[in-house]
Amino acid sequence: MNREELKRLWFSLPPSTTIRKEITVKMGKSKFWPGYGDVTIMSDGPDGYSHFSTHQEHPLEYAKDRMKEEKYKKYKLIVK
User: Fold this and answer.
1) CA distances (Å), 61 to each of 1, 55, 65, 77, in order?
2) CA gap 76, 39 in Å, rounded
3) Which tens digits make up the pLDDT trace of 24-41?
4) Where are the domains of the chain?
5) pLDDT tens, residue by residue, 42-79
6) How many beta carbons lie within 10 A of that of residue 25, not counting itself?
7) Is the pTM value of this prediction over 0.85?
8) Where are the beta strands (DSSP E) in the chain?
């Protein structure tokens, strides 16, 4: 099988239909920044990939506020 045949085969595969929508909260354990943590909002699917990350003082409250918005209602919350 040559390179051109492999390329045609690769691009003929059906695209992934898996949709992943997550809001991940990672609580900080720093003694210098108590109560702070990281929040990551990630979406991956047939429409494309999107990623947003921020450092917040009250990360769980921030994530819950985002989940109240219409855009993020279908997102899964993960707390680490």
Assistant:
1) 55, 12, 6, 12
2) 13
3) 999 988 777 788 999 999
4) 17-79
5) 999 888 899 999 999 999 999 999 999 999 999 999 99
6) 19
7) no
8) 20-27, 37-45, 48-56, 76-79
Cα distance between residue 48 and residue 75, in whole Å? 15
Nearest to 42 by CA among 22, 66, 15: 22
Residue 33 tokens, joined: 């920044």
Q: How many CB atoms lie within 10 A of CB 24?
A: 18
Q: Is 31 strand, coil or helix?
A: coil
CATH number for the region 17-79 comes to: 3.10.20
- CB-CB contact of 59 with 39 (8 Å): yes
